[in-house]
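Summary of Year 1 activities. Much of the first year was spent building the evaluation harness for sequence design. The harness presents a backbone, in tokenized form, and records the residue chosen at every position. We chose the following record to illustrate the format because it has been used consistently in internal testing since the harness was completed.
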């Protein structure tokens, strides 16, 4: 339990870069350093998280805590991974409400975003070598990547990748290859229930989270403006830990400390339930030839979707020569020298601030 608590407190404090980077850091810690499980077991858990709603990296933390220390570890890992990020986002939300958006923040993000792209690219590269077990899975990954870039539904592509891999293996076995306040009539209960719903049904990337949040809080309820929503998502992306701590920011802006606590509880609570229900099934899936093939297909499809998101994020983050150089240098430092991603993110923010001061 102490080992689980320490590891995920550390990751919740320094794990910048979004779910792909978080997962890469977890692999480094639990597969390569601590040897809690093998690469194949790790990829199976990753595939399982992609088949249930909720934040993938948080669910991976919960799976790993359960694997290491049983039911107490399940709770400990999830809480320790969420709480540091929640507290950091809470402070950011307090500063935002008190002082408002400032131009300096945009310059900090200018330097951070290309570094984050490099972190995600390094994470995908590390996981690909485990997930792509042959030309068939490689072809599935390329197809999912292309379809995702063309606008394909993420869940359909995940399930499709699994089904195709399962069918091909089956055929192959036969011989073929200060808060602003809530809106009028609204309350903390509604805030909690909206985030509970989002945590229960949301699949996919931060872009999907943005769509859900915009539909509920901007269009349907009218509690936030588009600018406030983008500010919340930006804070969730550039702070360490799970991106879903965006809920903490929105909860504080709308309902102060109680709002922040209830929003965070609502969006993360379903993940604990889904992992507790699905974790015992993973070894049974792998033991079955057909189900194992399905899981292989889901794994490679999940990495292809990460690649598609990286491409989309990269187009928004790498906008000029400076950001291109930042991304390239960060990637070299990650792949060649294994520099901790937290230092790279801090360095990117410092460069962005220095460029702002120069101008």
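For this record, the design step produced the sequence shown next.
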């Amino acid at each position: 339990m102490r080992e689980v608590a320490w590891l995920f407190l550390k990751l919740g404090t320094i794990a910048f870069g979004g779910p792909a980077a978080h997962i890469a850091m977890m692999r480094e810690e639990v597969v390569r350093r601590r040897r809690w499980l093998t690469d194949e077991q790790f990829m199976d858990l990753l595939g399982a998280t992609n088949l249930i709603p909720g934040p993938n990296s948080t669910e991976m933390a919960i799976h790993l805590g359960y694997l290491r220390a049983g039911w107490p570890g399940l709770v400990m890992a999830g809480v320790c991974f969420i709480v540091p990020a929640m507290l950091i986002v809470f402070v950011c939300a307090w500063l935002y409400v008190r002082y408002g958006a400032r131009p300096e923040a945009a310059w900090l993000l200018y330097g951070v975003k290309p570094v984050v792209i490099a972190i995600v690219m390094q994470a995908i590269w590390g996981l690909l070598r485990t997930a792509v077990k042959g030309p068939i899975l490689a072809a599935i990954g390329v197809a999912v990547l292309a379809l995702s870039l063309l606008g394909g539904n993420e869940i359909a592509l995940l399930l499709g990748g699994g089904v195709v891999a399962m069918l091909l293996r089956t055929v192959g076995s036969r011989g073929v290859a200060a808060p602003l306040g809530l809106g009028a009539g609204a309350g903390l209960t509604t805030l909690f229930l909206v985030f509970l719903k989002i945590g229960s049904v949301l699949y996919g990337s931060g872009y999907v989270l943005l769509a859900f949040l915009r539909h509920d809080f901007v269009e349907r309820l009218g509690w936030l403006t588009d600018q406030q929503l983008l500010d919340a998502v930006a804070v969730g992306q550039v702070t360490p830990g799970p991106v879903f701590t965006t809920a903490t920011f929105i909860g504080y802006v709308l309902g102060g400390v109680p709002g922040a606590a209830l929003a965070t509880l609502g969006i993360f609570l379903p993940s604990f339930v889904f992992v507790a229900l699905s974790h015992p099934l993973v070894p049974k899936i792998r033991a079955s030839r057909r189900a194992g093939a399905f899981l292989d297909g889901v794994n490679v499809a999940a990495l292809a979707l990460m690649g598609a998101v990286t491409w989309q994020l990269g187009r928004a983050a790498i906008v000029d020569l400076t950001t291109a150089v930042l991304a390239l240098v960060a990637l070299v430092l990650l792949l060649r020298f294994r520099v901790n991603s937290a230092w790279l993110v801090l360095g990117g923010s410092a460069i962005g601030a220095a460029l702002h001061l120069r101008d």
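The chain is about 80% helix and 0% strand. Quantitative recovery figures across the full test set are reported in Table 2.
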